[in-house]
Amino acid sequence: MGEHDDLVTALTPFIDLLDRLGVVWYVGGSVASTVHGRFRATNDIDVIADLREEHAAAVREALEADHYVDEEMIREAVRRRSSFNLVHFGTGLKIDVFVAPDSEYEASVRGRRNSERFGDGRGAPRLWIASAEDTILSKLVWYRRGGGVSDTQWHDVRGVIELRGHQIDLEYLRRWAPVLGISDLVERALEEGLGRRQVGASPPP
Description:
By secondary structure, the protein is α+β, with helices and mostly antiparallel strands. The protein has 9 helices and 7 strands; from the N terminus they run αβαβαβαββαββαααα.
């Protein structure tokens, strides 16, 4: 696994717990853009999970020995459909847990997540990862929320587009971009990543 060892160490107890609880989850953010695009070191792991308030105590009980965890913060995040943090003591890595919103788009994201091997070698674990298209869309949403000034977010998006090329489902991006209010950003990113002449092309069969 190499450079991913700490990430796997910090994340595995939490996602194993989610699986035992029957909670649907996937990893997004810079980890997803690394899987689909270019590697970028990060101290934050984004996990989107369909948690309910009754899961809060189980999360605290399972993780408090090795992670900073606040049960009331979890309950409040579930009520607000917002986020909370876990911090792994041994590695210092932070897990940002986003409670999955109840929306048509989120249902689409969950349905398109992929099981991807994370790291090198046969022993590398498999993680549920947001699709390349949904990684692009979510990062552009965060880019817009941040005032459109984050070179890091834009670099991640460009990396996914450039490495995935015409494997990217352009129709899917353009279906959801107006719903998310990022149509202009999607077209700009595609033009920069694929080139003006190729943006309208369809992926190969």
